[in-house]
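This part of the workshop introduces the protein records we will be handling. A record pairs a protein's sequence with a compact description of its fold. Comparing a sequence with its tokens is the quickest way to learn the format. To make this concrete, we reproduce a full record directly below:
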Amino acid sequence: MFELSLVLLAGVAAGVLNAMGGGGTFVALPALVAFGLSPVTANAVSRVALVPGAVASAWVYRNELAQLGSTSTRALTVISVLGGGVGAGLLLVLPASSFDTAAPWLLAFATVVLAFGRHLSRGLGRLLGRSVGMSSRVVLVGQFFLAVYGGYFGGAVGIMMMALWSIGLGLDAAASNPMRIAQLAAIYLSATVLFLMASDVLSAPGLLIAMLVGAVVGGFGGAHLARRLPAWLLRGVILTTAVITTVLYFLRG
């Protein structure tokens, strides 16, 4: 019961982090590994367990979703589902070292873009004499690759999504948070379907259920808390999470 209580608390923390800025995987995965699961199994279990929390957060934000420029929300969600499924398939057939090696550098880049993306976008616009923005096709291609990463590992994929939207569309991190949560839920959902069919995520039902329940509580509560924070404070929380996540990733590497 003590172990399950700790995993439950880890699930709550992961759900809150994902709702407010991303990085829940960095709490969920180490907790599951600490209680005896292999890294690959823990990765799959954490993805399955975090799905209900992501869905709960998306439900809280259901009336606040704003379309990303000219990109259809439906098309973006379909791409997220497809990419998440592809990434989950790669996890089942490839060694974990490939994405693991690149992840710290991807996160560092994403953190810098999150911090300066809108300023860079406006600066480029002034330099070129026109607004800078990605076409709908480029947004969807970028989203697909991020969804593949999210299905394969998922660490801070939400941070990377907001970085892409910040530099390519000039979107504010706080304003894009509802869409980030919705797309995170789509990526995790498709990966979960494949993991349930083809992996051993059900080999540790107690840990799975404990983290799942905690993630729902954390995801629902974290989304409500995020909605009540001033935009500048939410941006600060998101950026702080990104910086801490990047540092921890370099340390673990």
About this structure: The chain is about 80% helix and 0% strand.
